[in-house]
Fold this sequence. Notes:
single chain, 5-stranded antiparallel sheet, globular
Amino acid sequence: MPLLEPDPQTLRPTATGNPAHDRVADRRALGTPEPLRGELIALLGPGKVLHKVSDLVRYASDASPYRFVPQVVVVATDLDDISAVFSYAHGKGRNVVFRAAGTSLNGQAQGEDILVDVRRHWSGIQVLDNGARARIRPGTTVLRANTALARHGRLLGPDPASAVACTLGGVVANNASGMTAGTTRNSYRTLASVTLVLPSGTVVDTARPDADTELAHAEPALCAGLLALKAEIEADGELVARIRAKYRIKNTNGYRLDAFLDGATPVEILRGLMVGSEGTLGFIAETVFDTLPLDRHTSSALLFFPTLSAAAAAVPRFTETGARAVELMDGNTLRASVSVAGVPADWAALPAETAALLVEFRAPDEAAQEAYERAAARVLTELELVAPAASVTNAFTRDPSAIGGYWRARKAFVTAVGGSRPSGTTLITEDFAVPPDRLAEACTALLELQARHGFEAAVAGHAAHGNLHFLLAFDAAEPAEVARYAAFMDAFCRLTVRRFDGSLKAEHATGRNIAPFLELEWGPRATELMWRIKETVDPHGILAPRILLDRDPQAHLRGLKTIPETEVPADPCIECGFCEPACPSGDLTTTPRQRIVLRREMARQSPGSPVTTALLESYGYDAVDTCAGDSLCRPACPVGIDTGALMRDFRHRRHSPREEWVAAQSARHFKAVERAARMAVAAADRIGDRLTASLTRAARRAVRPGLVPEWLPRMPGAAARTLPVTRRSGAAAVYYPACVNRIFGEPAGHRGPSLPEAVVAVSQRAGLPVWIPSDVAGTCCATIWHSKGYRRGNVVMANRIVEAAWGWTAGGRLPLVVDASSCTLGLGREVVPYLTPGNAALHAGLTVVDSVVWAAEELLPRLDILRTVGSAVLHPTCSLQHLGAEAQLRRVAEACAREVVVPDDAGCCAFAGDRGMLHKELTESATAKEAAEVNTRHFDAYLSANRMCEIGMDQATEGRGYGSALLALERATRPARQLPSGVRLSG
């Protein structure tokens, strides 16, 4: 064991109450039992079978109020794996549930036996017919697919609020629709074909001309059964009429019975049945969608009404004028959304009875847009609107920023309202639909019902389609609270069906919460047909039992999860999963949601629990060590949870007092540390990668991998010993070369000035000379200590750098330009909590500017571009995202290259200072998709804004030569007489 390995017990939660009734049992501390574990490893290989109790717990929760712990998790990589698992389940009498994004709201992504991850290896999109169609794999998010389609002026029909995280496999399996899809643009209407794996293992591509012939040969009983069901349904005129009537409004409750009316052959019927089947009939391996025009001319308004019923009554006026979306939000929803970035703070004081409509028109051209706006203006004159806050305008706008703010508020309904629920309560999200002309009546009835059962109202929905959503929060650990919830659900379902003849599920699919009420809505005849569909397609019942069909009238009360209190920053988490696509460790270890889920399970356990002990043994590496600490989870989280900050705190808690002392000493004597680091890089460059790597690996084994970086191939050499000579007199800004740029040089093969020389030169050319203080050596932005959780060192360096910067900038009169984006973020924001009151006051007077922003906003307008390269690919760093400076990076790149590409899969590289050298597998995993995209072609320039990120991307792309965009700008503006010999001019 390494000498300084941290003690996992330092992160053991302090017991604050009785063990939860739904805690994982002690007997499961060893993970997947035998022979299941050994048999699946023998069948699939060890890399595809997750069997530790920490694996099982982190996959047990999704965005729903339910929690079921699987016996084992299989990470399938291809169709062979899916077929093998199906065959195993048949032979052993086991069952299988699929999980992709885990954003489903009713437990569809949870199973009690074999859970199959179909996200990690199942992403990808192929644009067909110039965007008219798209072939999309099931692990691809809606946002990722629409990003690719937008270049062709197209988009998908389904547009769920969770588009940033939900995947197409889940969208189809649940027939999720969203804001604008209604009944005409959803998956059922726009899915051209699907490739599916039946429970028998048969693979069906419904697009193949011979698909029915092949299916009849492989599955004659299935084909006969489907055609018999079709004939039986079509022979019952009353049932046919009922089916058609049910789908005139949004409905995802039960199997899609109109598939038998719309499909003429078994394959066509299967294509329809798979939509909304919730993984109970087969695995959706690939989809082909017919896409829709991306009408780019948008006009939107957020209109405020005195009451929810008044807002609902106005909906038909806008749908009649052609509004693409009419979204309803009640007062509680509006107030809770102030936690979302960009939402006006004065909404927090809105009256409870206030409601709002988000109305949007989308047009293909400006003439159509103006026609819509004139029609909308006429409607506005006839409405009784209110302005209960100063920020309310009640006017249509074309401003993308304002429109984006409206939609962020609307899309955060579940997450923002859920995040503000009382601590320790479980969140239920339900959606239903009524005929649109009865929406106002349904709103009033729902509010009365919620009040009668003691639930605080929170209502929003796709009002144009009669589709409402509501939230309930209750304590699942208290039997009386569960009984209150049960009574409400019984009353709600009867109200929806008997008074409104509505749909108990409009777009979230049946799920565990509504399965017991399926017959209430559809009646015994149609419900029994659904059971027969299941028996026909899945005769052995191996797929997703009790998710869509369940004869237990109390099934919706089984598996409700408790939400024990945990660390305060994480307590608002509703486990929605919106954070996961942004997390660089998601394909390696854990995601932010899973890190919180694991802590909650520890809190459920009794003191001394073997389950907690087992979870802690894995948590150090899986959660703490492999968190990049980039905090991209915070802007992705609708309630702003910064799991990266929590992991940094855990790193601090694992430090011994001596480690903290050593870190503080390194900060106090950083000039010597910096000099030693630069000399070590220079020495490594001389002796070569192989020997240096072997030496560092030996040190890691002896000391601790988390403390000693591993030397990697293609590391750059050392920076120059001295910085450029500059003059303070006449300087327009103070230039602070980050310590990383004082230690590491430029990428291999670079010809031309160093980054400090480039910044000085290009600023001089623009007439805005910069000054480098002579005493920058030995200072740092403090990110080194901050990212590792060394608080004492962080305090030392944070205060030192602020005091120094105050002097350098003449008391804040000059801006401080920083040439590494993470250092800009660190010096500009992250040092603040560690400053003395006096230094905090000094910091407030500083203007810290990233060099990319300096170049884009101050230098470019004053520079002449003398040459450009043909193409450049960008790696926007996570720090630039936090700074809101991605556009400036692109602006600089576009001045230097005729074509600028940001990869669709660009994300955090996870190099995170030296974390990519401490855990190189983290960067390898985080960059895999982006690197694959970059490596498909040659670019003339590979640009970013942070030296360590550039090194990380060089590692990922096998030495493409990533460098600062400021180097490219210097070259683009350099007079010809100053070019190195042999450099050819272009552009």
